Amino acid sequence: MTATATADFSRKLKPVMVSGREVFPIIEGGKGVGASNGISAGAFAASGAVGTISGVNQLEFTDDGQQIPLVYHSTTRREKHEELVANGIRAGIKHAQWAHEASNGQGRVHMNVLWEMGGCERVMRGVLEGAPGLIHGITCGAGMPYKLSEICAEYNVYYHPIVSSMRAFRALWKRSYSKYVELLGSVVYEDPWLAGGHNGLSNSEDPERPEDPYPRVAELRRFMNEVGLHHVPIIMAGGAWHLKDWEHWLDNPEIGPIAFQFGTRPLLTEESPIPAAWKEKLVTLKKGDVFLNQFSPTGFYSSAVNNSFIKELRARNDRQVPYSTEPEGYRTEPYGFGPRKRPHYVTPEDMERINQWVALGFTEAMKTPEDTFIFVTPEKAQEIHTDQVECMGCLSHCRFSNWKDHDDFTTGKKADPRSFCIQKTLQDIVRGGPIDQNLMFSGHNAYKFAQDPFYSNGFVPTVKQLVDRIMTGY
Fold this sequence. Notes:
Elements: H1 3-12, E1 16-18, E2 21-23, E3 26-28, H2 38-46, E4 50-54, H3 77-103, E5 108-114, H4 120-130, E6 137-141, H5 148-155, E7 158-163, H6 166-175, E8 187-190, E9 197-199, H7 213-226, E10 234-237, E11 258-262, H8 276-282, E12 290-293, E13 301-305, H9 308-318, E14 320-322, E15 333-337, E16 342-346, H10 348-359, E17 364-367, E18 372-376, H11 378-389, H12 422-430, H13 463-471
Parallel strand pairs: 3-11, 4-5, 5-6, 6-7, 7-8, 8-10, 10-11
Antiparallel strand pairs: 1-2, 9-13, 12-13, 14-18, 15-16, 17-18
């Protein structure tokens, strides 16, 4: 790309008004559990863009920057949940202070929260009260956060809902957001097929058939215009790598004011808090190495690197057969379940499969909420049981442990061994645990690290260098 072409493209990338200030149309994706923090967010803000602190079970540090181990001193889920919420508030305040100091008064600093996070509202309020004026906006997705606008209005900060369709935003608008128009900082459209982490695929959408985001975003803009939100930017999240590929979105009345959120590219920067092994893995990924799956205990689809952790979950779910407690239809073969070997009935074909799995060492049957068995090794069965018992209530509703963070503190369903403890694995990988044995969230474009000449010869940019590079279109 010539210098003239670069300058021409940069002129097309108009600043946008985000959370009360004009900034470059570049937003740092919030991610979760320490994968973005006050240092990375402050660096984005200092570069004239928008930095985003993860407010999802953030890692806690001492004043001199030493990481504090997450150790629970309680024994019950409810008590551990209280510790987790308190930790999230303390950590959020610390990272807000770091981001503010690093920003040098430039850009904007946001905090990202997961609406389905356990104690989400309490963490938001705690951080906003403890760090007044240091956070300019809250981004929030993974659910339908109707109360987001009301909470942000209490603290006079902008709110940035994350949606994956016009219909979702319309529902939020009609029920709540229309009452707090002045603080709607943007609408984040997150591509449910390409974004990393938890995705907003609906029941009517096919995970195997990605849709072009342009008509979906144009539909969102049409509704926003109908209700007087012409001036509110849309932030395109998921799939953004080279902005040159999105040139037809710029100065386009069907799209309106637009900015782009980058969640994957900021992982490979000097300020990125993820461990070195994770960064090294990113540059080895190939197209197709990121897997869209529905194993998350939230029940949402999510995108993660297809490593040994994901492969074990896939195999665990494949070793699954339905059962009944009485002979029924083709289910005529008794299978002895549990210490007392009480008979449960499966089909002859499934009994044959069970015998094959048992011969391979998958001898332990575990019941699911849908009246099926999965078969795992004794070691894996013990690990699943231990993780369920040690649940610390990180989600508002968890299908893995049957925890709920309110009312009677149970979902009323059986714990589901086809899922996993998401808090355990995300805490482990960001603290330097084995990357192949943990959940590694990533956007589907991560394979471009290996193809992009910007990263050749092992180059790892600073956030400022990355922002400058993105502004060229590449």
